[in-house]
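Lab notes, practical 5.
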Amino acid sequence: MINIVLLNSNAYVLFYYFIIYSFLGWCLETVYATIKKKAFVNRGFLHGPFCPIYGFAILSVIVFLKPIENNYIILFVGSVFLTSIVEYITGYVLEKVFNSTWWDYSNKPYNLNGRVCLLFSIMWGTASVLILKIIQPYFVNLVATIPPKPGIIFFHIIILYLVIDFTFTVITIFKLKYLLTQLYTTYSELTNKLSDLKINLGNTKSIPELKTKLDQLIESAEIKMSKKKSDIENIIKELRIKIKYDSLYIKKSPDYSRLIKAFPDLRFKGFDIILKGVKNKIHKNKQD
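Output from the prediction step:
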């Protein structure tokens, strides 16, 4: 067995607890989302069946609150506090690293910057007490029965897998952000061209809306008799090529769909309207 002490506990044992609760968290989230959407949803940040935030949250309770587990009031309050800290820090780090928002509790009462809210913190606290008092003893015995050699081999395999999964997930996120940047640049360039032609676009805020508006304009009596018609037709051709390209790009990148379905509140700063168009396109692709 790996004899590395971390926070007065064996790192090998803590790792197995982390994996177990990350997996159970993924199961809980996936079942809930699947029932809600009436279709399978891989409700995880990673590709695989793990929600690390659950693993870290429950692990913090096990490590720091085990000595006071018989005082239910302090255990509950401590669980609410610790799990909320984990959730808040996770949300904050994701926002700063990817310049994005992955979940948003702003519409919930007593929320803190939309990253945590009282209702879910209480649910986290209640679940943590039940886990520590009822479920955790079974997993203590389960982990203790794992044979040393296979256990160490699996330990290294799962760490390697998590590193690879996390790396591919990060790459996917940056590729999605790059796609949104391309779409935003395209939209800005086309609207600038139309602005030079003094074309009134109304409230169009995305490429699909822009194309619909231009299709309507090209059929209008005002444009049919105008010298602007050929210019607008050329812009529509550019739009059709871009829309077709982006549709194929999204279809070839199912990871985008997975992330967007897993995090329906996902937003990238400055690209909210563009991302909304991508979400609609993914939904349309699914129906087709």
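Observations recorded by the TA: Confidence is low (pLDDT under 50) at residues 221-225. The two ends are 52 Å apart (CA to CA).
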